[in-house]
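Memo to structure team: turn this sequence into structure tokens by end of day. - J.P.
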Amino acid sequence: MLRKILVSALFFLVYNTGWSQNASFQLQIVDARTGEPLAFATIKIPELTTGAVADSAGRVELALPAGTASVELSAHMLGYASKTLRIRPSHEPVRIHLESLAETLGEVVVSGTLKPMARSESPVPIEVYSPKFFRANPTPSLFEGLGIVNGVKPQLNCNVCNTGDIHINGLEGPYTMVLIDGMPIVSALSTVYGLQGIPNSLVERMEVVKGPASTLYGSEAVGGLINVITKDPRNAPRFSLDLNQTSFGETGADLSGRVGKGKATGLVAANLFHFQRRWDVNNDNFTDVTLQKRASVFGKIAFERPQNRIANIAGRYVWEDRFGGELQWTPRWYGSDSIYGEAIRTNRAELIGNWQLPMEEKVTLAYSWNLHDQRSAYGTTNYNGRQSIAFAQMIWDKKFCARHDALLGLATRFTWFDDNTPVTAAPETAQNRPSRTWLPGLFAQDDIRFSDRHRLLLGLRYDWNSTHGHVLSPRANWKYNPNEFNTFRLSVGNGYRVANVFSEEHAALTGSRRVVLAADLRPERSWNANLNYTTKFFPAFGFVGLDATVFYTHFSNRILADYNTDPDLVVFDNLDGYAVSRGLTLNTDWNFIHGLKILAGFTLMDVFAEENGARAAQIHAPPFSGTWSASYTIPKWKLTVDYTGSVTGPMPLPVVPNDFRPDRSPWFSLQNVQFSRKFNQLEVYAGVKNLFNFLPRDPLLRPFDPFDKYVNDPVNNPHGYTFDTTYNYAPMQGRRVMLGVRWGISS
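Reply from structure team:
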């Protein structure tokens, strides 16, 4: 600091000695968001080859040669974006506002504690992703967009119907809870479709919590949660439109508009997707990618109330029709054994809302309801299912004293599920007996602030499941800040999950395997611990942030699907042993003063189950995976270049006995590049996806005999192979070009 003061004094001495007759002017450099002075910021005047350093109050006094009408200067500060402007000599002080490069560290998050707080203050480690992050690699749905999020893997489970789920740190989709505005509207039967059809234009941000969150959210939040936060209609753009087309024939449209004013402001959005070209690059007579037609409509209304009390309601409707199968299939072959096809038609409705009670205490009622109806055929197997979930939660946000900030909640969830499988069949009659499950619960948490450096979050949840009985889920989160640049977070928690195997294992519905329930399934239990460390520093080139986590999860009563014992069966049972998910994840954030931004990370993990002394690796859990997103803007041309991608190590695959295909995938990388140019309110973008044209090999077993009519042929089929669709590790889409346009009106 003394050196900077001496340098500043030297600059002022030079100016006062050489320009004694010159006019002077004053500057003050401040933080654009907080208005706080930026001590010892640097001012440069290129045309005069001079400069100065601000004092401890961010002030600079400079002199110009006599007769100078104006001068261009630039302001610099480590951790802030530089700013260039032209000023004239004046006796009035001029303020220069610099934007922080680490602004995202101060984002407000809610997923970890159900309370709005700065991300840097949260005792729970939370990753936040903005729409700008996903625009670097435009996709038809948020499901596919998650492919560039470190530690999160959209996994396709069927090579014909292309249904899938979301893996967090190697744990399968049923362990991931998906929420919209904090409401668990996506679960069980609808997990596959939850992130499809959400218009990107209405997304404010996406929050990702890795590790059990059952204390706040109950069952299905064992592996982690993804919370899609939609925009407040009062702050949303007046209108936005995003249209794109790929060389494969995929067409997407995303539009939204703000309506109303005064006491009620609404946001209306729609998402449309159309793809009907039958591609067969690998010549197996099956569609490489399912044909899809999808339409989604979303509406949200925010009401102004006295004392800024919360009141909003939102709804969404999704319709989708998808098909995958043999190229010559038409609807006339639906459910037949002549030409193989998998056709799925989905209708889904959702309602979510929040209403703060008109009382002095801050008590809020949150509620949601959804209906998911599916009519489908997997070869000759017809599967028809319907699920409805009603959820309500009352939360009392109470600050008892300066150190204790508590949250008390009362929740209940009712799930109604019916399908045409033995799961909902009454043993004594031929009629169905729909499943009805009540899940009332209580939860409490206390955010204890011991000091500015130490913070402890304690939580406990009690649930009563009408089928499985009592479940208790505790957790503790400790946060320690040795200084403003470094943060340690230690989390320990318990999670539980009640499974519906038919709604979660679409591989069991492909028509190629029969499902066997080996025993009555008990709830899974897990204990998780993770240590998170974040730091930020400001080298000469800009800003660097690091986020590292070591995680460990131990499961008991884990429900496993056995694909290997019998190629014709999928056998579900509780594990007579234990399962483990452990590893290390690292995220890095690099922001360079001259405009280059890089987000990169990797995950090392070991996921396995051990039973009777034998250890088996988790299917589709790669020991190494990495992602990156690099962006650079050329201001002169208003051109932005985005380079995104992922790399995946060899992952265990579901092979059959004597399978000729490798039981692990090869190393592979999916990479994309995009160029975008702004013309005021219009933005045009073009790019290439899957830049190096990677495609998986042998995704289908015996595609020439999908109905297994000729499997009993010892000469041509000595190993007794049957048709199988589960061998998947990457999308069956090669290199393709995308063109698109975005148009927005802010006000």
